[in-house]
Every structure is written in structure tokens, then in C-alpha cells.
Specification:
Shape: elongated
Distance between the termini: 11 Å
Structural class: mainly alpha
Protein name: Plasmid stabilization system protein
Number of domains: 1
Oligomer: single chain
Largest sheet: none
Number of strands: 0
Order of helices and strands: HH
Keywords: Toxin-antitoxin system
Pfam families: ParE_toxin
Radius of gyration: 12 Å
Length: 47
């Protein structure tokens, strides 16, 4: 199983989006990032 590689810019974007969503709905922010990371793992493992 391959691990996705995140550029610095992508990591910063995810952190910023997480922080923005977490202001109002912390659990929704965590769930959203988990979904994005799952999709990135799926792409990394695609042929």
C-alpha cells in the first residue's frame, strides 16, 4: 500500500481548511480531512 505524498502547499491548504471549519464545527473538520486523506490514499494506490 502506497502512502500519498502531500506537497507543502497542499499540507498548508488542508491545515487552513481544517482550522476554518473547526471554528464552528470541530468534529466536521476532522471528518472532512479524514475523507480527503482517504481519497488521496485511494489515488496513491491506483494503477
Amino acid at each position: 500500500m502506497r502512502k500519498p505524498f502531500y506537497t507543502t502547499s497542499a499540507s498548508e491548504d488542508l491545515a487552513g481548511i481544517l482550522a476554518f471549519i473547526a471554528r464552528d464545527k470541530p468534529q466536521a473538520a476532522v471528518d472532512w480531512v479524514a475523507k480527503i486523506e482517504a481519497k488521496c490514499r485511494a489515488i496513491a494506490n491506483a494503477p
